[in-house]
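Case study B.
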Amino acid sequence: MTNPWVAFVLVPMIKIVVILGTVVLATAYMSFFERRLVGFLQIRLGPNRVGWFGVLQPIADALKLFAKEDIVPSRVEKIVYLSGPVLIIVPSLVVFSVIPFGPPTTLFGLLPEPIAPFVTDINISVLFVMGVSSFGIYGIILGGWASNNKFSLMGGLRSAAQLISYEVPMGFAVVAVLLMAGSLSLVDIIEAQRQAHVWFVFPGIVAFFIYFVCGIAETNRNPFDLPEAEAELVGGFHTEYSGMKFAFYFLAEYANMILISSMATVLFFGGWLRPFPSWGWLSFLDVVPPFLWFVAKVAGFLYCYIWFRGTFPRVRFDQLMALGWKVFIPVSLANLMVIGAVIVLLGGGR
Amino acid sequence: MDWIVAHFAELVFFYLAAIAVVGAGCVVIFRSPINAALALLCTFLAIAGIFVLAHAELLAAVQVLVYAGGIMVLFLFAIMLVNVRALPQQPQFMRRLVPAAAVAGLLLAGLLVVAMWRVGQGPLADPATLTTAEGALVGNTQAVAWSLFMQYLLPFEVVSIVLLVAIIGAIVLGRKETAEEGA
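Model:
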């Protein structure tokens, strides 16, 4: 580790490749689990033909999408149309560079010294995640506009309105966690939960609820999937996209779901910490590596996503806006004041 | 190779500065309003990069979050909802174009003169204020918070009130005159 090229180029490169590969593979398999699980909820089978119980289905889907003819409809704004999928996939993958998947590890003694299993930890990680992920909206709004299709434009505009509305209460919910942790670094937030002997979901239950509901709205998932409401808007903003360009939109949606779940895990559920990190009699749980705790929590949130899709009816657009502006923003502001007051009364802060 | 390592920050600065200036020029030159808005977006991002170079990480994040993530999306929104291409044919929007351009140009020229004169007087602020609070070395976020909420609290609150008044004014102006319906 003394050679700077190894420390500053080779190691980060390997980390980036591993994390990117994992996230992309996870998004592909997310679609498989969604189809199987929704099939289960709707008392049917779902894809079960390709491979053992259908586990090779995502690979087959990817190959199919890759081999499809690349169609660019006539009369689209070509440069903007082609950059739409790029603009949505890049931010949704870049944010995973600051998600802390686990504490520094030697990979069961394989490495001479522990390395951190994430690309980097910057002292404004939370702002980085929110800023970069808010960039995906350009892929949606520009893709919808450049398609030169009224349904796409309506879907794009709806989506943009939805994202802007729900980013505000989501931000306030995150600020509640920042007040409790006293830091913008995701690693420090996990460390603060270890030192506080409690996951932030217990003091911040309201903030967590708002965060997760806003997260569902941010990712355009049911019951808030109005931008692609089939009955009204054909396919929404990606109506005119096909083949790999559609696959990028698809991949970005699932990557964003994994991102929201990872952020909920880090901010409210202690990241890689085991349940009740201060209870000594639960220490037998430490045999499970911290990384697996992280994965298990994220998987739980992703299950909820699919569960909601299988069970909730879609809300109307005016209900969506009313919920965001008239309920979540006032409630999250009030919650912020209560949490701030409690922290001052308990002698926290400075 | 050594020269590149030694001057890396400067090279990145000139690269970002070129993007910012070219982007700003394209905002004026481009015919399509959407393309102009995208050029403005490039400028915002390049400025965020320059903030990072100047060790103002919080400002860079806020620049991306507020300008690139929020304000530009609203710009695009307005451009897509209003048929901007038809505006030049509508005389009520074009009547005061020349005086408006003259006033804006004069304001910009005044700002540039003041800025150049002030830079000639010496550095605007101590770079140490970016990373220190009460003499102790802290992160950029804490340092900005200390100067914002301790040293500059009154201007901060005044600006907040001004923005609040502007928001209320925009709502009042934007509301339709149908008070009887009871909105």
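The radius of gyration of chain B is 21 Å. The remaining cases will be described in the next quarterly update.
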